[in-house]
Structures are given as structure tokens and as C-alpha cells.
Write a structure and sequence with these properties.
By secondary structure, this protein is mainly α. It has one domain. The chain has helices at 3-35, 40-72, 81-111, 113-128, 135-150, 156-182.
Length: 204
């Protein structure tokens, strides 16, 4: 496998995937922050679209990369299961870096972290107010909300590490399936040249 092909394709596709996922995550966070529970159905549709798009891009990007590798191996064209899995895990992890940076900028500089946490707590309090809870449950939830408000603001590095870990796990799970559909077995014995043999013509 040509490492330059691997590196260039991982960097390109990882950046594309990351930007797409950042856009969808910002849309999801905006719906949750500004719309609250009234937009729950739309929020669910955005989440499902993000999942479907992630799987589609995983298959398309890995298949295209397999084509590049196979075209380079002209003497023995093949693409293994392991190569497909390794490729997609790396693409997904790089996308996690992009998503981590994008989410950090949006949460800390567009919305504001304190505003995000306060609105997050308010939404859950409004939802829980519609449910009958015991005094013990209410006290436990109030303690949890207090801990959230007192929690330190996460750094950009911790945010990136968290998203990279998430995308590593999702990339591995999806890659295990995608790699099975994009692998190409090596041709044994060469091409079939039976069609090149000409039958002798009958002379009149």
C-alpha cells in the first residue's frame, strides 16, 4: 500500500467528514438550545440523518479508496478487509478532531458555556415538572444540577479527546461492517484468456 495515497485520502476525507458532522451537530445543538423539547421530533430526525449520512460516507469513501489501491496494484489487484477497516478508523478519528474543535468554538464562543449549561438544566427542569416525582428524587436531581453548574469548563483538549474517542468507537463498529463490503479478493491464476482463443475456420 502506497502510504502517500493513504495519508492524502485520510486527510481529505477526514476533513470532509468532520465538517459535515460539525454542521449537523451544530444544527442539533441549536435545535435543542433554542427550540427545547418542542422540537424533539425534528431533533430526532437530525440525529437519524447524521447517522445515515455517516454510514453512507463510510461506504463511499472506503470504496473509492479501495479503487485507488486496486488501480495501483496492477500486477495483483486486491484490497483486504484489514486495509478497509484501518482506513475508515483513521478517517473517523481525524473527523473527531475536527468535530471537537468545531463544537468547542460553537459552545464556548457562540452560545457561551455557562449559558449552554443553564439552558440545558432549565429544559430538563421544565420536562421533569410534568412528571410526578418524590421529594427524594427532586433533591437528588437538584444536587445533580448544582454539580453541573459548579463543574469546571472543559478545555479544548479534553473536548477533542472526548470526540476522538467517540469517533474511534463508532468508526471501528461501522468499519467492521463496511470493510466486508469493500474488500476485493486477489485474482488467482490471472485473467481468463479463453475468449482470446480463436477457433480455426473451416475452409471451403
Amino acid at each position: 500500500m502506497n502510504f502517500s495515497i493513504f495519508r492524502n485520502d485520510v486527510l481529505t476525507k477526514g476533513a470532509i467528514l468532520g465538517c459535515v458532522m460539525v454542521a449537523l451537530n451544530i444544527a442539533k445543538s441549536s435545535l435543542f438550545y433554542y427550540g427545547g423539547m418542542s422540537w424533539a421530533l425534528v431533533l430526532l430526525l437530525v440525529i437519524l440523518c447524521a447517522l445515515a449520512l455517516y454510514i453512507y460516507l463510510a461506504y463511499r469513501f472506503t470504496r473509492n479508496y479501495a479503487g485507488l489501491v486496486v488501480s495501483e496494484r496492477q500486477q495483483a489487484p486486491y484490497f483486504t478487509y484489514g486495509e478497509g477497516l484501518l482506513y475508515w478508523v483513521n478517517v473517523s478519528m481525524l473527523a473527531g478532531v475536527v468535530v471537537g474543535c468545531g463544537e468547542y468554538v460553537f459552545m464556548h464562543y457562540v452560545i457561551g458555556y455557562e449559558n449552554f449549561v443553564a439552558n440545558y438544566i432549565k429544559l430538563f427542569q421544565d420536562a421533569l415538572s410534568q412528571v410526578k416525582l418524590t421529594s427524594q428524587d427532586i433533591n437528588m436531581l437538584n444536587e445533580l444540577f448544582t454539580e453541573l453548574q459548579k463543574a469546571e469548563e472543559p478545555s479544548i483538549l479534553s473536548n477533542i479527546f472526548g470526540t476522538v474517542w467517540t469517533y474511534l468507537m463508532s468508526g471501528t463498529l461501522v468499519g467492521l461492517v463496511i470493510a466486508a463490503f469493500t474488500k476485493r479478493e486477489p485474482m488467482i491464476g490471472g485473467a481468463d484468456n479463453s475468449n482470446d482463443k480463436k477457433e480455426p475456420s473451416d475452409e471451403q
